[in-house]
């Protein structure tokens, strides 16, 4: 079924200027993958995209490489680029990696956070308190975490973290409604922002570790149930 999927069913045809092509194509595909319009396993063909946007294959190829680097696409033998799977069997390993990456980013970022960063984080928490749409919860969660890490000087570290958060956002969009968690509490997020505001680096890291390890346990339990373990 994935091989018969037409990208034109999801992406509107549009004539792009050459200097815009790579960025626009990357963003259109990224949005369609994150919100589920392009499901895992969908083949993303260079020529189909080039025709759809009226450009050569070169900017399309560059856009696909960027999305592959963000773990949103993967290259499969005989199929080329396909939409990457959601968090799966390696979910616990994914969260273990996130603990390492995000605690380091938080350590680097907290001393440089200013009042506007803290205000942004608190605003995301307020929106999460009132949000019921699962797709939006995933997006707000990603933005909240990145608002606390964004001042870390190591930009490659931030890119790696955002890749992992993108994967979690996709997972939450598709699975949050069936996980049976009820209304999600913001206690950990509030404690994390409070510690960051007070420049209490070790306390913030402790809260973050607890928060991510709890999430890993919930997802592991859910996936075990889905696999009938």
UniProtKB/TrEMBL annotation:
Swiss-Prot/TrEMBL keywords: DNA-binding, Transcription, Transcription regulation
Top-level taxon: Bacteria
InterPro entries, alphabetized: GntR_C (IPR011711), TF_FadR/GntR_C (IPR008920), Tscrpt_reg_HTH_GntR (IPR000524), WH-like_DNA-bd_sf (IPR036388), WH_DNA-bd_sf (IPR036390)
HTH gntR-type domain boundaries: 19-86
Protein known as: GntR family transcriptional regulator
Naturally occurring in which organism (per UniProt): Pseudomonas oryzicola
UniProt lineage: Bacteria, Pseudomonadati, Pseudomonadota, Gammaproteobacteria, Pseudomonadales
